[in-house]
């Protein structure tokens, strides 16, 4: 699609016969913030490396800003700002000197005023001549974002940008990224193994585990699925789904990842009536309860379902 800045189709990567990514299909729409979520070793950094041209895929096809041939993709990578997991900074230089040197290295035409503007944007304009080696970890991560902003890219790709930060540092980086998206329309792909860090900014999510995409979902749909729900445990989930759907047309019923669980969303003040309906209809219920879902719990449920598949 024309409004996709990234498109991956059947992308895989193996090392000595061992898969790191397996048949990944992925698309990122212009103007969105996508959270790439997965445990350590899920394949997030490998996927980002392929997008950035740092890793050659074993199979599959890719498009960047609509370009599909190798030369066109490489040309479009100039529109990407990249922040790696580790800080790639010059410790004996100031923040300003780091940005100016990167401009020279990469051939970016960036004036002194533009450099100062980026430093102000990331909250480092007052750092002055202070050397990066004396920066806090939060300041280093913000400077890494500043490096990624050189040339005003249309797409930011950030690999674990809040890794190692304290809570205040995480908030700082999050506010910065949300501001870039809202004020400049910057499309952002940001990876993290901590789902709660992404909840305040992502408009969509891509869940990875063991090199596979488990699910792609919008933030609205994810929040809905993680809201209050009735959990019914039964040995006949299929019958429970049918009976509840017919008897209570205003609710949504779904079979959970956990075996023998049915989740009911909406009209939960009638929870006891729903359970009574199941028992009266010949569906055995071993237990039931109303719970508030968590994003972490949702992801763990996906992992469990992926293992069973």
Q: What is the rounded Rg?
A: 23 Å
Domain module tally: 2
The average pLDDT score comes to 87
Count helical runs. Answer: 10
CATH architecture of the largest domain: 3-Layer(aba) Sandwich
Structural class: alpha/beta
Could you tell me the CATH topology label of the largest domain: Rossmann fold
Largest sheet: number of strands, sense, barrel closure:
6 strands, mixed
Could you explain the architecture of this structure?
There is one protein chain. With 309 residues, the chain is an alpha/beta fold. It folds into 2 domains: 4-89 and 150-222, P-loop containing nucleotide triphosphate hydrolases (Rossmann fold), CATH 3.40.50.300; 228-292, 2-Layer Sandwich (Alpha-Beta Plaits), CATH 3.30.70. The protein contains 10 helices and 13 strands. The strands form 3 sheets. Strands 5-6-7-3-8-9 form a 6-stranded mixed sheet, with helices on both faces. A 4-stranded antiparallel sheet has the order 11-12-10-13, with helices on one face. α3 crosses α4 and α5 (137-149) packs parallel to α6. The model has no long low-confidence stretch (mean pLDDT 87).
Task: Summarize this structure as a short list of keywords or feature phrases.
ATP-binding; single chain; Alpha-Beta Plaits; alpha/beta; Rossmann fold; 4-stranded antiparallel β-sheet; 309 residues; elongated; 28% strand
């Amino acid at each position: 699609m024309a409004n996709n800045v990234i498109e991956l189709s059947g992308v895989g990567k193996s090392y000595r016969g061992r898969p790191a990514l397996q048949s990944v299909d992925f698309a990122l729409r212009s103007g969105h913030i996508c959270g790439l979520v997965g445990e350590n070793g899920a394949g997030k950094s490998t996927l980002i490396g392929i997008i950035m041209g740092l890793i050659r895929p074993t199979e599959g096809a890719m498009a960047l800003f609509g370009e599909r041939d190798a030369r066109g993709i490489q040309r479009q990578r100039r529109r990407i700002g990249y922040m790696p997991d580790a800080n790639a900074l010059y410790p004996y230089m100031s923040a300003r000197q780091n940005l100016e040197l990167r401009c020279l290295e990469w051939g970016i035409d960036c004036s002194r005023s533009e450099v100062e503007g980026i430093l102000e944007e990331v909250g480092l304009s007052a750092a002055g001549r202070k050397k990066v080696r004396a920066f806090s970890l939060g300041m280093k991560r913000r400077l890494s974002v500043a490096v990624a902003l050189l040339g005003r890219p249309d797409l930011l790709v950030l690999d674990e940008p809040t890794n190692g930060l304290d809570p205040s540092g995480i908030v700082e980086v999050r506010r910065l990224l949300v501001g870039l998206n809202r004020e400049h329309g910057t499309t952002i792909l940001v990876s993290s193994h901590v789902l709660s860090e992404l909840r305040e900014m992502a408009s969509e999510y891509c869940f990875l585990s063991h090199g596979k995409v488990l699910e792609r979902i919008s933030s609205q749909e994810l929040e809905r699925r993680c809201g209050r729900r009735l959990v019914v445990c039964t040995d006949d989930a299929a019958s429970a789904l049918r009976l509840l759907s017919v008897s209570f047309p205003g609710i949504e019923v779904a079979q959970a990842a956990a075996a023998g669980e049915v989740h009911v969303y909406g009209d939960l003040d009638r929870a006891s009536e729903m359970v009574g309906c199941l028992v009266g209809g010949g569906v055995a219920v071993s237990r039931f309860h109303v719970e508030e879902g968590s994003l972490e719990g949702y992801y763990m449920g996906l992992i469990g379902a992926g293992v069973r598949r």
